Amino acid sequence: MKPRLLDLFCGAGGCTKGYQRAGFHVTGVDVEPQPNYCGDEFHQADALTFPLEGYDVIHASPPCQAHSTIGKQVRGRFSHIEHPDLVAPTRQLLDATGLSYVIENVPGAPLLRPVTICGSSLGLDVRRHRIFETNWSLMAPPCAHGWQTPRFRSLDQRRGPKSVVPVHGSSQLASVVGVHGHINYAGEQELRKRAMDIDWMSAYELTQAIPPVYTELIGHQLQAHLQTEVAAA
How many helices (H) and strands (E) does the chain have? Predict the structure, then answer.
């Protein structure tokens, strides 16, 4: 039987899909309805109060608005908007289970000894840096931004020369596909889907997701870790 993985704060299932590819049976939990969720089971519930018994491993992606660059910009313009930091209570919850776990968030979130995964190191046309905390040993390849040459239409010309370079004077090209904000031109949604390797989400859901290949990489290492635990028992 496949190991059972619980995906808390699952959204439409970017993380879920990667774990499925790595051989897990995945149950998703989210406080919002997720009609496009791709996992094996789904429960609409509060992730911090959902029963955790009966699973072999837990992944959690607590909301990142408290730590994201965009979130900070929003709070600067609208000071009344506050986003709770759920990283610490999530970690406390997972620690108490005694299970192997993964916590995912954006750079700057208060994760412990996090490992960074970048789309450039996995052959994607996005960078989309995300950090992962585990209570087991996780490894990931370093960023490989060098091969991502300017070839995509830029969405945000304020992001600077690292991702955008001048072309023919006033026009600009980006080295990666921008997967943020609203759709700007015909065909952009399909470009975003290909860049993220996600074909089942809405435009908004895609902006909130991470590429499945991230958790596929993690999932294969997690399978080996679980097998080692079983052998040592």
Answer: 6, 10
Phi and psi torsions of 195, nearest 5°: -65, -35
How far apart CA 74 and CA 91 sit, in angstroms, is 26
Q: Are 185 and 153 in contact (CB under 8 A)?
A: yes
The closest of 18, 5, 7, 10 to 198, measured between CA atoms, is 18
Domain holding 137, by residue range, is 4-142+207-232
- Residue 112 in domain: yes
Over the stretch 148-180, which tens digit does the pLDDT of each residue have? Answer: 999 998 875 544 444 444 444 435 899 999 999
Query: CB of 22 within 8 A of CB of 59?
Result: no
Length of the chain as a residue count: 233
What is each CA distance from 10 to 122, 153, 166, 214, in whole angstroms? 22, 30, 38, 14
For the entire predicted model, the pTM comes to: 0.88
